Amino acid sequence: MSTLPVGLIIESLVAILLLVTIGYCVVLNNRLKRLRADEESLRATISELITASEIAERAILGLKATAGEADRTLGERLVEAERLSRELSDQIGEGNTVLERITQIAEAAKPAAQAAQPAAAPAPHEPAPAAPIRASDIRSAAIEASARLEHFRKRAAEQAA
Predict the structure, then answer these.
(1) Are 139 and 99 a contacting pair, CB within 8 Å?
(2) Does residue 121 belong to any structural domain of this protein?
(3) Which residues form a coiled coil (predicted)?
């Protein structure tokens, strides 16, 4: 038969299986260490994400507050601008009314002024009479004055802001 006893073969086989088991345990232990290290890394990442989301929430709340304040300020300025626009429109309307009255008075005064003036030419030492003021000149002066007023108000509003 064989020279090796059956007991020795079985014990050798058990020893080999034991060595394979120990090797597998070492490999498994290394994998577990890496998994634990990855778990710690994942926990750190999750912690950073939570901190970043809290910061973002605070920033969003700040932006909402700023947007609300800007909306209120803009609304107030818009109401004030509308009020000033109405006032200017009213004043321009009143100015046009006054201008029309002045034009009517000037037109009514022309025949009287022409009748009162003698037909003779002015003396050489006397200055020439001033040119009559036309309604279109008065209107253009009023428009220019209102444009300048608007320009000054805009500049004052910009300086105030």
Answers:
(1) yes
(2) no
(3) 25-52
d(CA 74, CA 143): 29
Looking at the domain assignment, is residue 53 inside a domain? yes
Q: What is the CA radius of gyration of the chain?
A: 50
Give the global pTM: 0.40
Residue 89 corresponds to which tokens in the numbers above? 């429109």
CA 143, CA 101: separation in Å to the nearest integer? 16
DSSP secondary structure letters along 43-100: HHHHHHHHHHHHHHHHHHHHHHHHHHHHHHHHHHHHHHHHHHHHHHHHHHHHHHHHHH
4 falls within a domain: no
142 part of a folded domain: yes
Tens digit of pLDDT at every position of the chain (161 positions): 456 788 899 999 999 999 999 999 999 999 999 988 888 888 889 999 999 999 999 999 999 999 999 999 999 999 999 999 899 888 888 888 888 888 888 787 777 666 656 554 555 555 555 566 677 777 777 788 788 888 878 887 787 76
Q: What Cα–Cα distance (Å) separates residue 32 from each residue in 24, 29, 36, 43, 145?
A: 12, 5, 6, 16, 87
What is the total count of domains within the chain?
1
